[in-house]
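Notes from hallway chat w/ T.B., transcribed later so I don't forget. T.B. wanted the structure written out for a chain they're using in a teaching module, and asked if we could keep both sequence and structure tokens in one place. Agreed to drop them here.
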Amino acid sequence: MGTNKKLFISLADLSAEKYAYYIIKEIVTKDENIEILVVAGDKIKELADQINSKYSFNRIKFISNSIKYSSVGFFENFSYVPFAYIEYIKLKGILKKEKPNYVLLIDAPFLNTKLIKYLRSLYKPVIIYLIPPKTWLNKRDKVHKFIEETCDYIILPFRFNLSLYKKPYFFGHPLLDIVNLERSRYIQESKNKLTNKEKNNLAIFPGSRKFELLFISKDALNIIKDRDIYNIFDKFLISSLVQNNKILINFLKKGNIDKINNIKIEIVKDNMEIYQNSLLALSKSGTIVFENILNSLPTIAYYKVFKISEITFKLLKKIEVKYISIPNLLIEYEFKDEMISNLPNYLKDDYLVVEELIQDQYNLYGLKSKIFKVYNEIESYVLKIRVFNEILKACYPNDSLKKISNFILDIINK
């Protein structure tokens, strides 16, 4: 393709891939002279194949699957390091040859900060960073200084951290658009209106990585085997990607043969189906917790890493995070006063929408206690979530993904 407009997109997690999917579709539709190179996951690869089939050339060059090597913690994914490093070396070679003049980085700080250093050592592309590192902080860290010095445009997802940079851009949080798009798709496919079915089911969102399924979410999945928990719910709906179904099923079968074979446990591919049929959820901390709340599903968030990772993080980073979920952070840093003022008196001291368990607090006993708390106070959590979503809707702009896409197009076509 004879064009001098090449855009390289780099991401390494499923949430970022959802944002990139929309952005790529917008760019391809609105400007036929832009060539896109991308490292992402299966969803983007399918989109690339679909778009390329309509042309005599490849409008989108899918370089590699970066999501399968995405990681958490310091020491949890050593087995992936050699394979990820080989892919990274290949990527560097491709970028050196292609020299894209525009770069869009989405989240994935471990990968993308390295790419920034490498690209800046080669030449001077225009670098746009959407959701840069540590957007959950409300005070400046050294990584913010690095991003500010090396990136041309910085797009933040929250209002509370706009002060971290001298000239940030804010169009709203793209997840709000994704949720609306998913609802529209579900309604169209099911040919039915969204309704609260009030099913007495427990949803579990264990994550997509193997490490998340077998380590972080081990207790969340094992809680199904607790007799008290097993008996109070009609079903357990487990969110899973296709490639992890085998791992998930094998894990659930251990010590649970009679239960995995009956109708109480279902592995569900479409999260919208879960939102329509669940009373509350257990979820690995991450963007999915925010998505659950936007879909009005009361959620208990959990997270843990290896003990050595926890110690290393505390020694090297020296960062204290008050909450691990986006909704609670938004309340603390942006909506606290408004949230409290809109709640009845009996909830003014209990205004957070997500229950959280982290590290040593996260175990079978802690999970069981939290489940019973939310289960017995479900109406209060539904009310808090409704108030939160009303405040969020009033404060955060609509059509953020469209605005971000147009912003990127304006930069490219300057």
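Follow-up for T.B.: The chain has 18 helices and 13 strands. Might be a good example for the class.
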